Structure of Phosphoribulokinase/uridine kinase domain-containing protein:
Amino acid sequence: MPGMAAPLSAFVDAALARAGGTPPILFVSGAQGIGKSTALSRVIETSPHRLVGMSLDDFYLTRAERAQLSESVHPLSETRGPPGTHDVALLTETLSDLQQGNAPVRVPIFDKRSDDRLPTEDWRALPSRPDAILLEGWMMGVLPDFTSLETPPLNAVEAAPGALAWRRWQEEQLAGPYAALWDRADAFCHFDAPGFDCVLRWRTQQEAQNQGVALADLPEARKDWVRNFIAHYERLTRRMLSGTRREGVVVKVGANRDVA
């Protein structure tokens, strides 16, 4: 099992060996475009265990709900991804239902092209009470750091008028609902990129896949959109890579997504 799937499989096997009668909840982090979703799918397909995999991305708030946040918090909060743009309550309820065997369990699907959640009739049905539950996301386990509010903006997004309120709101979310979500995990596995500079290349490749075109055919305007989009994630991605996160297994990934 090549690449990132091998260490992820070993992580899952070790967690199952420690588990009692309750299916363990395992959180997997990694920067945008690093390949964690692909690795998770590979592990689920090849594992002898009954595994359920989900993505934090599927639990984004709806477009309408984020539009409300743009008015009550800051216009930047309408962009999906940062803390506060997920339906943490729904995710927590879903984890409990899966772990306790409450059937049927349906999981939302977020359509990134329309930037909105699909109707409930299109949600995925998952088997309840699997052997283990895996949830992957770019910021799984990141810790709040209110002292960061005293530091200057990292990029043009953070330099937007009034953006300090947006940054404070994220820290409050991390200290509240997301901290409670991290508490649900039995273990964390962190896939570490060499640095933030790799994220733009990886995320641009991912965007081409999302759009169904070759990387060379991705319009320049869309590449600019990706560059602006990941700026919303830069501070917390760097924080994750610095180790300001929940403890867990750490896997170093190279610029070509090879595992060190």
Summary: The chain has a mean pLDDT of 94. The chain is about 40% helix and 15% strand.
